[in-house]
Amino acid sequence: MMMAIGHGLAKVPPTEGFVKLVGSLGFPTPAAFAWAAGLSELVGGLLIAAGFFTRPASCLLAFTMGVAAFMQHSADPLFSRTGPSKELAVLYLVAAIAFALAGSGRWGLDDLLRRRLDSTNASDA
Fold first, then answer.
1. What are 69-90's pLDDT values in tens digits?
2. CA distance 122 to 125
3. What is the H or E stretch that residue 47 is in?
4. Domain boundary assignment for the chain
5. Is 94 helix (H, G, I), strand (E, B) or coil?
6. Nearest-angstrom CA–CA distance, 8 and 32
7. Is there a contact between 99 and 108 (Cβ–Cβ < 8 Å)?
8. Alpha-carbon span 9 to 43, nearest angstrom
9. Percent of the chain with pLDDT over 70
10. pLDDT above 70 for 125
11. What is the pTM of this model?
12. Rounded to an integer, what distance in angstroms lies between the CA atom of residue 106 and that of residue 102?
């Protein structure tokens, strides 16, 4: 949820500065990639929090956090008390990879819908 509110909400719609930053990273269509990054953080963060389409949302978010950690913050230290670091991007990257591998778990909407579909299919047989 903090990914969506704390990071994604500020990037949708992308500001001119964010589009320029994305362009400086070498992406060919910076406006499209800025939208993709913002939406992966905003919508992906909400989907992961709800446990809905968890694996696809996590994969998109992991890509975005990989770009943030290893391209945008490539020159920054892993940890820093005084300036920018890649610590938060790496933390979100690891969490996104974990959700991509494990899914939402038994409390997510993915599992709830899967159980309902299984019970519907079982009663149809």
1. 999 999 998 999 888 889 999 9
2. 5
3. helix 30-50
4. 2-124
5. helix
6. 15
7. no
8. 9
9. 98
10. no
11. 0.87
12. 11
